[in-house]
Structure formats: C-alpha cells, structure tokens
Amino acid sequence: FIKMSGGARLENANPVIFQRSGERLLTASEEDEDVHDPIDDREIFDILSINDPEHPLSLEELNVVEQIRVQVDDAGNTVGVEFTPTIPHCSMATLIGLSIKVKLLRSLPDRFKIDVHITPGTHASEEAVNKQLADKERVAAALENSSLLEVVNQCLSTRTI
Amino acid sequence: MKESLSLVQRLSAHPDSRCWFVSWSPNGTLLASCGGDKAVRIWGREGDSWICKNVLQDGHQRTVRKVAWSPCGNYLASASFDATTCIWKKKNDDFESLTVLEGHENEVKCVAWAPSGNLLATCSRDKSVWVWEVDEEDEYECVTVVNSHTQDVKHVVWHPNQELLASASYDNNICIYKEEDDDWECRATLHGHTSTVWSLCFDATGQRLASCSDDRTVKIWKEYPNESGQGDLSWKCVCTLSGFHGRTVYDIAWCRLTGALVTACGDDGVRVFKEDETASPDEPVFSLAAQVTKAHSQDVNCVAWNPKEAGLLASCSDDGEIAIWRFQEEN
C-alpha cells in the first residue's frame, strides 16, 4: 500500500503554519439533549485533529485539512473530505489520506459513506492516491498490516504537548 | 407481470465484522460465507430457517475474502488476505483442512473451480492469475502463472462449459484466458470500464459475460468470431446499464435457471434486472425488475442465486449480515 522509507531527511522541512480555529460556540438547539444534532462539517473538522507524520503539528495547522473542504450530508449519509498535501510530490499523501479515512471510520456511525480525496490540482499522483483511498478492499487489507496500522495510529494519537 | 424481491431471513453471520462473500453449494442446500473475522461459516436449512452448521475458524490469519465450492460439492476453497488459499474437504457434516495453496505474494482476492473439477484459479493483488491442477490423489499443483493485468486482480470466473477463464482488475480491464500447449495465456483484453472492475459472471450458455465496476455501471459482453477468421476471441460490449447504481457495484450474478441478473451495490441496494425478450441478441435490453434500496444497513458486497431453487437469492454486507431473498414474478 505505502512504502515507508527510513530516511532521516524531512520532505518538507519548513512548512507554512496556519492558525488553529477557535472553540465552537454552541447554539441553544445544540445544547438541548432531546434534539438530534445532525452531524455537520465543523464536527467532522473537529474529529480530524490529526498529527502530521513528519512534524509535531496537526494537519489543521499545516492547512492540509480545512473546514471549508469538508462536505457533510447528514440526511444523505455522506461525508467528503478534501485534503491538500503541503507539497505536490508529498510521499506521505497516501498515509495522510488513509489516516483521515481511518479517523472518520472510527468516529462516525456506520451509516456514513466516507470519501477522502486530494484537493484537485495539488498533487502529482492525485488520481492514483484517490483510487487507493476509494478502494475499501485495499484499505481493509492495508489496515491488517500491523506496521502500517502502527504508523496510522501514531498519526491519530492525541498529542501531549 | 409484477416482480418483487422479499426478505426471507436475515442472519447475523460475522458479528462485529464485515461479511465479504457468500456462495451456494452446487446442490443448493448449503451456503458458505466468509468475512473480516477470518472465519468461514456454513449455513443450512432447518425447517423454514437457515442456521449455522459449521464455523471454520483456524484456516486463515487474516480476512477471508472469497469462498468457492467444487462442482461435486465435496470441497470448499477459501481465499484470504494472508496470501493463501485453503482447501477444505467435507467429511459427513464437518469440514477439515486438506491443504493450503501458497505462492501469491500478497492478498488472494478470489478462488474459482472449473466446471470439470480438475482446475482451480486464484488471483491476487500481486497482479497475477494462477491456474492450479488437482489430481485424483487430491494433490494440487500450479500449472501456470499469468501476468496480464497491470494492477490488483479482483475476481476470476470460469466459463460454464468451455475451458476458458476470465479475470477482472483494478486496472479497469477484463482478461480472457485460454489454454495453449499446457500453458494458459491471455487471448483477449476487454476495455470499456472507466474504473476498477470488481466482478464478472457468465450467463448459462457462456456466450455472454456481465461485469460490474467502481464506475457504477454494469456491462454485458458478447463473444464474436474474430473478423479474420482465426481462432482468437473477440468480445464486444453490447449493453451498458448506467444510472441505476448510486455507488460502486461490487458484485453481479446471472441466474442459470431464469436468466435474471442481480447486483450488489455500495449504496446498500440489491437490484434485479431482467432481459427484454424481444430485443436483438446483439443489442440486449435489460430493465430493472425489482430492487431493495436499503437491503442492508451498509455496502452490499456479494449476491448469489441459489443454483437449484429459482428466485432464491443470498446477499451479504459490511454490516456483517447475510440476507436471504425471494425474487418472484407474479402474473
């Protein structure tokens, strides 16, 4: 699925860092326990606080994921996330996409269909990466590989700063 | 004529896991299923309901992706992400592991028995298709490794009455293989799908092939004698069904008894199509006869017609369940 190289040099040594979005302000309806809250793009975006594989920074801080690139249709049971690799030849793109997919699969109810793909025009192999991420058989087999699963889990672990 | 697809029974087949595939035994009395829990289960009828008769737990180290019965019904093959194919022998009411076929470099995606019972085909993410021969002493030997696809091979299926094999791949193509001088080789490549081809099936006579894809279409292919008159095969796409499926079509099955086509879709639906009898054989027309849009609570991975009981259908899903359906045509 992915070739993990053991090299020490970082691919993107000086990434641009973006500001984190603030805490979400709750509306009265959202605070009411009896009202079913449809899942919306902010909630998905909050689920996606994922670590970058190379830097002690989150994907949000690197602008790899943005709230505006999250599309949720709660009634239609679909979630779409576009992510933007920091550089067009990023070899971590598949890993990042897989981490996003896994985070959503683990966090969302089973009824959701999840599509994760690269923001069009931002990666040299976006078609190949998108096709792998869309193939659930490939994703399932990859996640049975314990070393790959370990790397993904590291991206998804809550950081203690 | 009004058609309907009604639920007979739901089975919680592979709890906390996904059920990837179901396959009826040749005499139609047993249903084998397999899934992400690494197990194979055998289901049989007791009175009016289907119950679990056997659980084959220790054959594989990873997901079991597909299962296939031998034509005589005495053997079951299981293909796994652990890169092996296990052959089980039915002994009275139990199954014992006979042998394990190794050789593929990574996940085995499919296994299929030839109608003769002497040949087996497997395919894998390693891009190859292997043909195995089995002799009277239950010894298995690989006779050919074919590398015609450029990507992951998802499915292999044998022609119903000729020694001919077809495969479907992540490279968007279908390959047709024939034996030449003890070696199997690709004789035709069918282009047309615009994304991964997930599954294939032949009709009862083997003159036509149906394929289904991530491009959300189903294609029907027909064999034509080659223009130049030489032995080579030429298959043309004579029909494309589009607009019916909301997501990837994972499986397709052609009923040998009634000619009905059924699909398994990632939009959770099961759909049955019937052929218009008045259309020309070179331009067949299929229309949607019945569908259950929410057949399962998640993706439907497989559909299979019972080989002996017309209209009896099994489906399975990422939700871990198997559903048994009855397709009926009422006058």
TrEMBL record, chain A:
From the UniProt record, list the coiled-coil ranges.
none
User: MIP18 family-like domain: from which residue to which, for each copy?
Assistant: 49-116
**Signal peptide range in chain numbering:** none
Q: Does the keyword Nucleotide-binding apply?
A: no
Q: Which GO terms describe its biological process?
A: chromosome segregation; protein maturation
Query: Sorted alphabetically, which Gene3D superfamilies does this protein's record hold?
Result: 6.10.250.1280, Fe-S cluster assembly (FSCA)
Cellular component, GO, one term: cytosolic [4Fe-4S] assembly targeting complex
Enumerate the UniProt keywords alphabetically.
Answer: Chromosome partition
Q: Which family does the entry's similarity section mention?
A: Belongs to the MIP18 family.
Please describe the quaternary structure of this protein.
Component of the CIA complex. Component of the MMXD complex, which includes CIAO1, ERCC2, CIAO2B, MMS19 and SLC25A5. Interacts with CIAO1, ERCC2 and MMS19; the interactions are direct. Interacts with KIF4A; the interaction facilitates the transfer of Fe-S clusters to KIF4A to ensure proper localization of KIF4A to the mitotic machinery. Interacts with CCDC117; the interaction is direct.
Question: What exactly does this protein do?
Answer: Component of the cytosolic iron-sulfur protein assembly (CIA) complex, a multiprotein complex that mediates the incorporation of iron-sulfur cluster into extramitochondrial Fe/S proteins. As a CIA complex component and in collaboration with CIAO1 and MMS19, binds to and facilitates the assembly of most cytosolic-nuclear Fe/S proteins. As part of the mitotic spindle-associated MMXD complex it plays a role in chromosome segregation, probably by facilitating iron-sulfur cluster assembly into ERCC2/XPD.
- Full protein name: Cytosolic iron-sulfur assembly component 2B
Q: Give the source species.
A: Acanthochromis polyacanthus
From TrEMBL, chain B:
Tell me a GO biological process for this protein. iron-sulfur cluster assembly
UniProt cross-references to InterPro entries, sorted A to Z:
CIAO1/Cia1, WD40/YVTN_repeat-like_dom_sf, WD40_PAC1, WD40_repeat_CS, WD40_repeat_dom_sf, WD40_rpt
Q: Which domain of life is it from?
A: Eukaryota
Start and stop residues of the WD repeats: 22-43, 57-89, 101-142, 146-178, 190-222, 293-331
Pfam families, per this entry?
WD40
- What keyword terms does UniProt attach to this protein? Repeat, WD repeat
Give GO cellular component annotations, separated by semicolons.
Answer: cytosolic [4Fe-4S] assembly targeting complex
* Assembly and interaction partners: Component of the CIA complex. Interacts with CIAO2A and forms a complex with CIAO2B and MMS19; the interactions with CIAO2A and CIAO2B are mutually exclusive. Interacts with CHD1L, ERCC2, IREB2 and POLD1. Component of the MMXD complex, which includes CIAO1, ERCC2, CIAO2B, MMS19 and SLC25A5. Interacts with WT1. Interacts with CIAO3. Interacts (via LYR motif) with HSC20.
Looking up HAMAP family in the UniProt record yields: ciao1
Which PANTHER family does this entry report, sorted A to Z? CYTOSOLIC IRON-SULFUR PROTEIN ASSEMBLY PROTEIN CIAO1-RELATED, WD40 PROTEIN CIAO1
Family designation: Belongs to the WD repeat CIA1 family.
Query: What is the stated purpose of this protein?
Result: Key component of the cytosolic iron-sulfur protein assembly (CIA) complex, a multiprotein complex that mediates the incorporation of iron-sulfur cluster into extramitochondrial Fe/S proteins. As a CIA complex component, interacts specifically with CIAO2A or CIAO2B and MMS19 to assist different branches of iron-sulfur protein assembly, depending of its interactors. The complex CIAO1:CIAO2B:MMS19 binds to and facilitates the assembly of most cytosolic-nuclear Fe/S proteins. CIAO1:CIAO2A specifically matures ACO1 and stabilizes IREB2.
Q: What is this protein called?
A: Probable cytosolic iron-sulfur protein assembly protein CIAO1
Query: What is the scientific name of the source organism?
Result: Acanthochromis polyacanthus (spiny chromis)
Q: What gene name is given for the protein in this entry? A: CIAO1
